[in-house]
Batch of 2 targets.
Target 1
Amino acid sequence: MASLDNMCKCQPQHAHSIIDDLPSPKWNKKAAARHTCIGIYPFEHGCADYLSTTDTHPKINSIVLADRATTYATHFWAEFFGLLHIAVAFVVSFLLQSYRFLLYSLVNTLIVGLLHTTSDYLVKPFLTVIFNGFLQPPMIFLYNIMCSLRDILEPLAETLAHFIKPLATLGSSLRLIHVNYRNVRRFSKDV
């Protein structure tokens, strides 16, 4: 904002004042002996009046009136569209709130109620009939058969385990292959 204000306040400059008005750097002789000093020359950004070819411009009233008319027209249309923005915001917020009301109060309640009712009175009884009437009896029958087979074959399995355990111990003591892993480094390369 400050640079825009400076651009608006910029006065026509004379050709000799561009170079003459530059501040000269202040040298501290003691500091200069110790280290290097850098002089900074300020540059006024945004003011381009020094590029003009004439020193003084005639004051034209129509340009001043045009600037004022532009300012007033900008303020008028900004206020007009600000009022339109208020009206549009009122209509848009009405539409959004009515849409929210429809979704939250009607659609959400209706969908949740339909799903809950369908689940309680259709899906759950159907799954109960399928499980209790068709799946559970054969599964219980198979479970009972497998438990009976386990109980019948358990003594036979223990007897076989007593005979096979010594053979397994003997087989595990025999090695058919013996492998040593060593990392051997070669110092010569095959060419």
Target 2
Amino acid sequence: MPQSLTLQQLPFSQACENNQQPILTLLTKWLPSCVHLLEIGSGTGQHSVYFANHLPHIRWQPSDQRHYLPNLQARLNLQASPNLQPAIELDVTQPWPQLTSNVDAIFSANTLHIMSKTMVEAFFIGVGNLLVNAGSLVIYGPFNYQGQFTSDSNRQFNMSLQHNNPQSGIRDIEWICQLAQQQGLTLREDIAMPANNRLLHFIK
């Protein structure tokens, strides 16, 4: 990708802009002593650059599937900070990359409803293998409770997701917690967020 691209020419998510401050408030509370965080599914990179800038004590490692890396890295280059690492390739269904230091936190936003169920299962297995004991897993996105949508907008969003990819969809929180428990992760907090989303904090 040409390095002359400007921020205005890169993919942009308004949702990232809308939710980054509420998420940051809780990351600041939950990760005061975090050293090395892996972000899974960094997408446009807006979260990566914003959180790295506001959490300078954390070595922030963005990642995504290969086809997203050029645009992701272009944004990281344009909005670099000392603790923001170059993006790495990570496909949850493939062997995960070997990182040079222990990962004591993992963050992922708006990914589990995009993934297939098989990918969600692989996500938790990978997290369980990589995250150190007493480490944090923080997940942002929409979830169902007792098999029910929390809003009409989430129901419509789910229909749109499954129209584009029948393997995707908003996941039941009970299933997510079951997958987490199989990897030694316990749900500590489940916080309501803007636009009918949640922020989940698990501890290993």
